[in-house]
Amino acid sequence: MPDLDQKLKRFSQRYADDAPASVLTPTQREYLTGQKELSEASERAMRHRIRERLVPAMLDFELLARNLPEEELEKIRPFEGDKDLPKAGLTAWVYLMQPDYGNEDIPESKRVERAATWTEHSVKNGIELALGERKDELAEVDVAIEIDRGEDLDAIAEQPLEELPRDTLDKLLTTDRITAEEYGTEIGRRLR
After folding, report:
1. For the chain, what is the radius of gyration of the CA atoms?
2. Is 169 exposed, middle or buried (CB count within 10 Å of its CB: 0-12, 13-18, 19+)?
3. pLDDT per residue as tens digits for the range 150-159
4. Above 50 in pLDDT, residue 1?
5. What angle do CA 5, 6, 12 make, to 5 degrees?
């Protein structure tokens, strides 16, 4: 698995050191990526401040969805070449906000089923909001999400790379379980 330095390098490639505060301040980003060491009391305070920013941020996204002029959306929309952000981050956030996430009192199969339903409703409501507010359309939106929980990525990363399918290698790379060098070596081997 790549070390912290590799993860920090990937993070810094996405966010300039001078990126302005948004949902997170630059200091909060440093804390979450392990670049900033804090005392126990400071760490508790930092986590508290982060939590306090999240609800207003979610409300801000709805405000933006309803009211940001279309010409402003056009200026920020082109993320064509970026496979991870912002689409994956926003969708992950929807999934993580489900009420049952991490609740070990609910059987795994039930949590997965409820997670799919929660995410479906969230995506459906978001699309309906966008079409209703932006296009003045009454839309019938159908979203179906099926979640099949697979093997643990750390366990997969321990397997010989030559035995893994390409999409699994891609996932191991994007989740920092293998390095770009390991990935490139294996893809190069397959192309020979």
Report:
1. 20
2. buried
3. 788 888 989 9
4. no
5. 85
At 14, the pLDDT band (50, 70, 90 cuts) reads low
CA atoms within 13 A on the CB side of 118: 17
Question: What element of type H or E holds 47?
Answer: helix 40-67
Torsion, CA 72, CA 76, CA 78, CA 83, rounded to 10? -150
Residue 103 has pLDDT above 80, yes or no: yes
- Per-residue pLDDT, averaged over 17-44, amounts to 84
Residue-wise pLDDT for 53-81, tens only, equals 888 888 888 888 888 888 888 777 655 55
DSSP result, the chain: ---HHHHHHHHHHHS-TTPPPSSS-HHHHHHHTT-S---HHHHHHHHHHHHHHHHHHHHHHHHHHHHS-HHHHHHH---TT-SSTTHHHHHHHHHHTSTTTT-TTS-HHHHHHHHHHHHHHHHHHHHHHHHHHHH---------------S-HHHHHTS-GGGS-HHHHHHHHHTTSS-HHHHHHHHHHHH-
